[in-house]
From TrEMBL:
Residues annotated as domain Fucolectin tachylectin-4 pentraxin-1: 26-163
UniProt-listed PANTHER family: FTP DOMAIN-CONTAINING PROTEIN, FUCOLECTIN TACHYLECTIN-4 PENTRAXIN-1 DOMAIN-CONTAINING PROTEIN
UniProt protein name: Fucolectin-like
Annotated function: Acts as a defensive agent. Recognizes blood group fucosylated oligosaccharides including A, B, H and Lewis B-type antigens. Does not recognize Lewis A antigen and has low affinity for monovalent haptens.
Gene Ontology BP terms: regulation of cellular defense response; regulation of complement activation, lectin pathway
UniProt record similarity statement: Belongs to the fucolectin family.
Highest rank taxon of the organism: Eukaryota
Assigned keywords, A-Z: Calcium, Disulfide bond, Lectin, Metal-binding, Signal
Subunit relationships: Homotrimer.
Keyword Transport: no
Signal peptide, first to last residue: 1-21
SUPFAM superfamilies: Galactose-binding domain-like (SSF49785)
Xref: Pfam families: F5_F8_type_C_2
Length: 190
């Protein structure tokens, strides 16, 4: 590989990491996990809430306390969760659903509630702040009998520490220095 290609790839990568918020980078990690749901109607799979399309959704049977569960495979501090409601019908079904973050995979109802959804208009995406609640599982459940849970998209946002913007600029300067007579700068560790 020649230096130009390496340099271009690095520029690309650094650009990739530079989507920053103050005090960290907010990333949707929902797709890093595995989804499941209490029951399944039709071919409305639990993973349909993670495919980036608001046209495909999850669907449980009519049941008591339906749930959808995302296993993030390890514990994260969850900043916020977004839910996209279905647009074609039945948007009221989401009313009263609970978003939970915790570590119990078998007894989801033991996990603390982050937010209760009062309602979401058809096809809309609402965001719910979880203020850094820690857990491996993010779940949505509807308490009560004869309920159906449908989710078209779920996003789970985590803030990763560090503002890599100055860091990446410094690394670029280091790379440039390697190719020339400029002095090699010291980059601070973050
Ligand atoms: C998904 O949840 C159902 C209902 O609890 C359970 O029977 C099934 O084994 C789970 N599937 C996976 C892959 O964990
Ligand atoms: C979701 O649906 C709306 C139309 O209802 C569309 O404008 C929007 O782009 C869709 N978003 C995604 C991520 O597909
Ligand atoms: C769901 O919430 C919407 C908006 O507040 C309300 O208009 C509707 O009556 C509610 N439906 C049910 C079944 O709770
Ligand atoms: C989940 O486990 C992590 C790591 O053990 C812990 O820090 C966190 O407080 C737990 N979450 C809850 C809701 O108990
Ligand atoms: C999960 O809940 C079950 C039943 O309530 C309990 O026996 C178990 O200890 C809990 N596990 C964790 C990891 O909290």
């Amino acid at each position: 590989m020649n230096m130009r290609v390496v340099f271009k790839s690095l520029l690309f990568l650094l650009g990739f990491f530079s989507v920053q918020t103050k005090g960290g980078t907010e990333v949707n990690i929902a797709t890093w996990g595995k989804a499941n749901q209490s029951t399944q109607a039709y071919n409305w799979y639990p993973s349909n809430a993670l495919d980036g399309k608001n046209s495909t959704c999850t669907h449980t049977d009519v049941q008591s306390d339906p749930w959808w569960k995302l296993d993030l495979m390890k514990t994260y501090s969850v900043n916020r969760v977004t839910i996209t409601n279905r647009h074609d019908c039945c948007s009221y079904r989401i009313n009263g659903s609970e978003i939970r973050v915790g570590n119990n995979s078998s007894d989801l109802f033991r996990n603390p509630v982050c937010a209760v959804v009062s309602s979401i208009p058809a096809g809309a995406t609402y965001s719910y702040s979880c203020g850094g609640m820690k857990g491996r599982y993010v779940t949505v459940n509807i308490p009560g009998t004869s309920k159906i849970l449908t989710l078209c998209e779920v996003e789970v946002y985590v803030i990763f520490p560090g503002n890599s913007e100055p860091q990446s600029k410094c690394l670029l300067a280091q790379i440039r220095a390697k190719q020339s007579l400029f002095p090699r700068p010291k980059c601070r560790k973050e």
